[in-house]
Specification:
The chain contains five helices and ten strands. With 246 residues, it is an alpha+beta fold. Strand 2 (46-47) and strand 3 form a beta hairpin.
Length: 246
């Protein structure tokens, strides 16, 4: 039986999602809990994608195969009893064996949160990126329109990116402010390594008027990482939702 789960996690104390030797990871905690439930039998968890160190998730999607006869509505209860407090299984469903959390994903939504204030909030330091200076939101919105559509995003991914095909499609970019926060919302076909964080870092430089909105065209055409802005910290980034056909 294949089980699909939607999970949330606080990425502050994880070395990213993907399992690594001698490091605390989200996948490691999930597989440890499932192994206990399966009496020591190792269970592999597949996610819609990796998240980096310090990055959070509201709606990460995972799947795993099991031979346990547990009612589907009991899976969140059973797993949450074994998982640490910074991971929560929100819901579970039984899916067809052909379902794949990564390969069947059609779109992903990420959000990035900026705290926009003279001083940082010490209690939010692991969950938002603090910006002290005034930002021109309209210029950032203008620039974001030039990123929409299908492009080669080589300039907007880490030089360590392993995949050769760096063409992706951005369907929506929304930027709005609420009280002391600025929120960036990205929906795309998929995202390259550090892509959202570099997009945010570049848009922030435009908001600070260190660059102009039209610079986006030249950055895309250059296909060179050094042309784009700094990589924004992971702590402000959230994998918000993964979209499938249904």
């Amino acid at each position: 039986m294949r089980v699909k789960c939607i999970i949330s996690y606080d990425g502050s104390t994880f070395n990213g999602y993907q399992i690594q030797p001698n490091k605390r990871t989200v996948q490691g905690e999930l597989q440890q809990a499932l192994t206990k439930m399966h009496k020591g039998k190792e269970v592999k968890v597949v996610a819609s994608g990796r998240t980096d160190t310090g990055v959070h998730a509201v709606g990460q999607v995972i799947h795993f195969d099991t031979d346990l006869n547990i009612p589907v509505e009991k899976w969140p209860v059973a797993l949450n009893a074994l998982l640490p407090d910074d991971i929560v299984v929100k819901e579970a469903s039984v899916v067809n064996d052909s379902f794949h959390a990564r390969f069947n994903a059609k779109k992903k939504e990420y959000r990035y949160f900026i705290q926009y204030s003279p001083q940082p909030d010490v209690f939010k330091r692991n969950y938002v990126f603090h910006v002290e200076n005034t930002l021109n939101i309209e210029k950032m919105k203008e620039a974001s329109k030039l990123l929409l559509g299908t492009h080669d995003f080589t300039s907007f991914c880490s030089a360590k990116t392993e995949v050769e095909d760096k063409v992706r499609t951005l369907y929506n970019i929304d930027i709005w402010s609420k009280e002391d926060k600025i929120v960036f919302r990205f929906i795309g076909s998929g995202f390259l390594y550090n892509m959202v964080r570099i997009l945010v870092g570049t848009l922030l430089e435009i908001g600070l008027e260190q660059r102009q909105p039209n610079d986006i065209k030249n950055i895309l055409e250059a296909k060179e990482r050094s042309m784009a802005g700094k990589t924004a910290p992971g702590k402000g980034l959230y994998l918000w939702k993964v979209y499938y056909d249904n």
